[in-house]
Amino acid sequence: MLNYDNKIILAPMVRIGTLPTRILALRYGADIVYTEELIDWKFLRSKRRINDILKTVDFVDQTDGTIVFRTCHEEKDKVVLQLGTCDADRALKVAKLVENDVAGIDINMGCPKEFSIKGGMGVALLQNPEKAFKILETLVNNLTIPVTCKIRILDTPEDTLSLVQKLVSSGIKAIAIHGRTKDERPQHPVHPGTIKYIAERIPIPVIANGGSKEIEKFSDILKFKEMTGCSSVMIARAAEWNCSIFRKDGMLPMDTVIEDLLRLSVDFDNPPANTKYCIQNILRELQETPRGRQFLDSQTLEQMCTIWNLQDYCKEKQKMYQGLGIQGRWQVTPSDLEPPNKKSKLANEVNLDGVIQMQVCFIRSNYNDLNLPKSQLHAWAGKNGFSLPIYQTRQVEKLFQTILIFNDKKYTSTFWEKNKKFAEQSAALVCLYHLGLKTKDDLIKLGSLL
Ligand code: FNR
Prior knowledge:
Elements: E1 8-10, H1 19-28, E2 32-34, E3 38-39, H2 40-43, E4 46-51, E5 56-61, E6 67-72, E7 79-84, H3 88-98, E8 104-109, H4 114-118, H5 129-142, E9 147-152, H6 157-168, E10 174-178, H7 192-199, E11 206-209, H8 218-228, E12 232-235, H9 237-241, H10 254-267, H11 272-283, H12 290-297, H13 301-307, H14 311-324, H15 344-349, E13 355-358, H16 373-383, E14 390-396, E15 399-406, E16 409-413, H17 420-434, H18 440-445
Parallel strand pairs: 1-2, 1-12, 2-7, 3-7, 7-8, 8-9, 9-10, 10-11, 11-12, 13-16
Antiparallel strand pairs: 4-5, 5-6, 14-15, 15-16
Helix pairs in contact: 1-10, 3-5, 6-7, 10-11, 13-14, 16-17
Bound molecules: ligand FNR.
């Protein structure tokens, strides 16, 4: 059972707290890592799948095949999944889905963003202690793993304490306190005194948060711990900027951290856009340098790796994964959609007799703007005196499939894509293959063959 006493923790951070960053933080010395906030109703659209190739557990959104949450054995006993929720039953349903894959569940009661507040989540729960209590109590009573919550302070230490006491009575194992009010922004000073006031008065570990502005090295974490009288500390921005802040032996240069993050991103086949975002937040103002601008132009992991001389590592690993059958995404069809919906009947009404079918997907990151399948097909058609193809796309929920009509023949991919553009491109790939303009090897190299 995860113990929250005397721990240095990676704080939840949207888009930053994905698997590569979490593993990096653990390897640098963090004791516990929180996931980014995951919204309960979005999570409920996902299905658990074991990924034998990456050795990960993936929760895959059944409406578009994207991965909502990826985790692995290395973090199993140290990862806490943070949920955004306003509903006890929904929160429990999600927690039950992941109960055997994570070490703890945390409820976000500190997010001041409009999206959270309008949905009754985040700091909205601080104004509704009964509901906050109900969510925590429901989880505590029905889960085998520990439950925590992360809050902001209220206007006075006394008000904060009475709220915390109510939450603690639900049976949670620890509480993270961000020492700012809901209206205070990151540049405002944190209030360590209020955190201390609470920590001295409640029986469970308080995890102090909000000190990054003054945290520049490991010993500053210990100072913040001391100042707040807490048993544990949670770090967000200082780790976002340089994750080696968790190293007791001293911080590493920014480039080393980026290289380590890139290797993990390749290892876990992390979406390039997510890796790019994380590195942008490490580079910060250095994005304005020539190398920074080169980085901003990059789209694929290989392009990013090249800037830090890791292109061979990336190529070899990606080649190995492709050889093993990794496709970057999972296949999801309308019949997989849960719950079954009326619209999916539409999918069956289209007659695919006589349509040349093949299961290929379109991976955008494997193309530049000039060599897209549609561009290749259109150029070939023009050169050989054919009319341009016609594209007929149908949508079921958030999935798309295109029938491409070219030279009196129809082509389609049985892989349902997440948008219309991708569906057209994958239908064009089927057509190119049947015209002999792409070989099976080409499709494998493009990560398209399923
Ligand atoms: C956050 N924070 C945050 N908090 C939370 O409970 N769930 C979340 O998903 C996020 N997301 C997030 C993203 C990014 C990019 C940042 C910078 C912050 C808030 C964070 O966990 C922490 O409470 C504050 O940043 C204060 O701590 P530091 O940064 O002073 O250590």
